[in-house]
Amino acid sequence: MTTTIIGFPRIGAQRELKFATEKYFRQKITAEQLLQTGKELRKRHWQLLQNAGINQIPSNDFSFYDNLLDTAFLFHALPQEIATANLSALDKYFALARGYQGPAGDFKAWPMKKWFNTNYHYLVPQLTKTTKFYYDGGKIKDEFCEALRLGIKTRPTIIGPFTLLHLSEFVAGADADDFTADLLTAYTNLIQDLTAAGAEWLQIDEPALVYDLSATQIDWFNNFYQQLLAAKGPLKILLQTYFGDVRDIYSSLIKLDFDGIGLDLIEGKKNAALIQSGFPANKTLFAGVVNGKNIWRNHYQKTLTLLEQLSVANLTLTTSCSLLHIPYSVQTESFAPEIKQHFAFAQEKLTELTQLDQLYNHQQPDWLKQNQQLFAQPRVKEDPELKEKIAQLTAKDFVRQPAFQQRRQLQRKALNLPLLPTTTIGSFPQTKTIKKMRAAWRKQEISADQYRTFIQQQIKTWVKWQEDAGFDVLVHGEFERNDMVEYFGQHLDGYLFTKNGWVQSYGTRGVKPPIIWGDVVRKSPITVEWSTYAQSLTAKPVKGMLTGPVTILNWSFPREDISLKEATWQLALAIQAEVLDLEAHGIKIIQIDEAALREKLPLRKSDWNSEYLSWAIPAFRLVHSQVKPQTQIHTHMCYSEFGDIIPAIDEMDADVISFEASRSNLEILQQLQDQHFKTLVGPGVYDIHSPRVPTKEEIVAELHEILRKVPAENVWVNPDCGLKTRQEKETKASLLNLTAAARQVRREL
Ligand code: GLN
Ligand code: ZN
Questions:
Q1: ipTM entry
Q2: Ligand 1: lining residues by beta carbon, under 6 Å
Q3: Does residue 241 contact residue 275 with C-beta atoms inside 8 Å?
Q4: What's the start-to-end Cα distance of the chain, in Å?
Q5: Mutation test of ligand 1: which of 424, 483, 484 has the most ligand atoms closer than 8 Å to its C-beta?
Q6: 663 pLDDT tier (thresholds 50, 70, 90)
Q7: Which Pfam families has this protein been placed in (predicted)?
Q8: What is the reported pTM?
């Protein structure tokens, strides 16, 4: 047996790539210096894998921004105006990644989307009739040769044509057929070029095979690969999949002339059974048994048993997906040894692979013993009271009384808001001063009292500002929180935080997901102090601001010893306690953000309900089911791509939902109308992701557009999302235009 991985995190142990790239963007370093940083990181990572004893080392998993962008760029699938612009290749690449405004022109970035069911974002290639794919050398070959010069013969990796087309957007009447022939030539030439350079293996990633596939898609795949593989010559091809199973196409995959097939045995529920139904003796199975998405140690005995049950002749051990989705190493974290021993980040997963390899060959039995001991003792003390509470939940715990329409009348009376009430999504700009004060308080340079007084001042200033600007429902501004998950985690039992556990989210941006270590219980009130302080300053209602259980779960590393459902319900009870506390302290409107609700929606539609929505939606209902009829519950989502789950969103049974709409041409409103959506809506009336200030007239026009689809008494007026990343000046200007626009449209009604 041998060992390999699908890909390694590229940002560097200390996020060197992020910092270098950002310096390059700010013109603090040259292109050569940035390229040099990339080169050093690649070398360091290849050697790390080599020293860890990994036998097959991938290359071209490195990227300056994103691998799908790399693939499109490699094959020259860029818009004409960028291809011909007076820019270096590197700057053309970055122009696609993040837009460009300067002497060479004004180019928009390609859009970004979440990569399958992860929080990583890829660039969406925009393919037009004139896009022409071709291969003439480039990054994939250069990096193979670079490693070869270091004495390491890598296995280059590339995203395959099926996934490339699946994830791209076809613009202006283009379709897959326009590109198939060119792609076949391009991939064939790539194969020949790598063969000539001395490569033995090529890894082609086709994760899109784990979606539900149509007969047409399967045909396309078969046709394409039959031709491509007929031309592969001596190069061995690994067809790599991840994030799920390949039930729709397995029978074809094993017939095609691949040399290796990579299957995810962690998330791919049906893969083991598929393999057992027959795996050809002349192919190698790349068995993805080490979880590339979560940070826990592998359970060796379970893995070894699974491997034996597969009974495949040629086996290579690998990760379930690229290690891109977990932090670099646990070495630099300061957890106590009893805790640390339970974690394996990217670097530690390498050791797990080589240990499993040897154990499978009946060597080093001590490793197995140690691993068994680790799992033998209970890792955490479970909370019997919490367990009991969850076991005792009955239908009525998930149902708010009275029903929506009745509460609506009561809330109308209680809140007495005008038509088209105005509000914001929660956060106001997190200025440098705020971040500095928080850092000073953490380092104990200022006292807790000083910090509290400072935050209160911010709240006071902004409450007054909102009143003057004419907002109907105010917010306190979220100055106390750095982030919508970490802040909550810090007030919950059961959470752990890393110091350096960065995971790439997109481009140079990383997130540091906290770890759910044990049972989650609310330790103490989380936001009550801030919300009640804000409410004490004004007669207008102040909206309490919470993160919902599904989002907290989806942006944390979850436990593996209890189900996601159970973990989410624990979180739901914790947030429920906070909701009731806010209500008891006089907060009349409470917003529970579910910005990441869609993230773990299964990739296969047939699993949406049974595997996810059937517990995720009840988790949200559990949070607010016990409030008084007069208390108004809001929720917020950072996207409007829920046209396909509208009934589920309505079943959350919130009173009001705000969502991103300004960039999606308000298409969603028609869908909501068609499906008789009951929840009141606040479609974002301007895009907060840009510093641009919308004019009053634009917002008026947007509101007219909304009112064509939704009756005025169902509409709220608010921006797209929170304003924490914006500057104060543009924020105030935009919001003044928003309230002025609402006033004008109200007068017209
Ligand atoms: N209430 C949060 C804020 O305003 C919501 C953020 C989000 O949706 N991502 O910042
Ligand atoms: Zn948002």
A1: 0.99
A2: 425-427, 478, 484, 545, 593, 595, 636, 638, 721-722, 724
A3: no
A4: 74
A5: 484
A6: low
A7: Meth_synt_1, Meth_synt_2
A8: 0.95
